[in-house]
Amino acid sequence: MQFRNLGDSKYFPPVVPDGSLFGYAPGVDASGSPVHLMEISGRGLQLNGLFIEWNSIEGVSLDGAVMTLHTQSFLSGGFRYGTGGMLYRRDKYSEYEHSIQGYEVCHALMNRITFELQKAESEINLF
User: Fold this and answer.
1) Does residue 126 sit within a domain?
2) What is the pLDDT of residue 47?
3) Residues with Cβ < 8 Å from 79, sequence gap 6 or more?
4) Average of per-residue pLDDT values in the chain
5) In this predicted model, what pLDDT tens digit does every residue of 52-93 receive, in sequence order?
6) 89 beta partners
7) CA 93/CA 20 separation, integer angstroms
8) What is the 3-state secondary structure (H, E, C) of the chain?
9) Does residue 87 lie within any of the structural domains?
10) How many CB atoms lie within 10 A of CB 45?
11) Do the beta carbons of residue 37 and residue 22 sit within 8 Å?
């Protein structure tokens, strides 16, 4: 996939910027309050008690309303969460966002993972 830099830290297709992600466990009704899932940064994903560097992510898949982040950092081989009701916040003072540049947050997260994996691969191929 090719990402075009639109300036002002925006890309097409859209990637979720650094900030906080909120959502639900698979199968949980999305009508309640979302829970904090992770912090997104240039270094990787900070989950509760676990930091996953971008280069340790092996892939991401979407099966219906469940997204799985594939990594050996989990004994089960991945981190699963529901895509319905996924929200993004840049910081604790900003509003919750349901979309990034018109794309659902879950798809912008998948794009960010792909973007970071491609960036890491191109840096490795420089030597």
Assistant:
1) no
2) 87
3) 47, 52, 68, 69, 71
4) 87
5) 899 889 888 888 888 888 987 776 777 888 888 889 999 989
6) 20
7) 11
8) CCCEEEECCEEECCCCCCEEEEEECCCCCCCCCCEEEEEECCCEEEECCEEEEHHHEEEEEEECCEEEEEECCCCCCEEEEEEEEEEEECCCCCCCECEECCEEHHHHHHHHHHHHHHHHHHHHCCC
9) yes
10) 25
11) yes
Task: Report d(CA 123, CA 70) in Å as an integer.
Answer: 21
User: Any idea which residue has 């971008």 for tokens?
Assistant: 54
Give the position of tokens 């003072």.
93
Q: What is the rounded CA–CA span in Å between residue 112 and residue 38?
A: 14
CATH number of domain containing 11: 2.30.29
Domain that holds residue 72: 4-120
Is 125 within a domain? no
Short-list 32, 60, 30, CA closest to 45: 60
Q: Given this model, what pLDDT does residue 30 score? A: 67
Number of structural domains (the chain) is 1
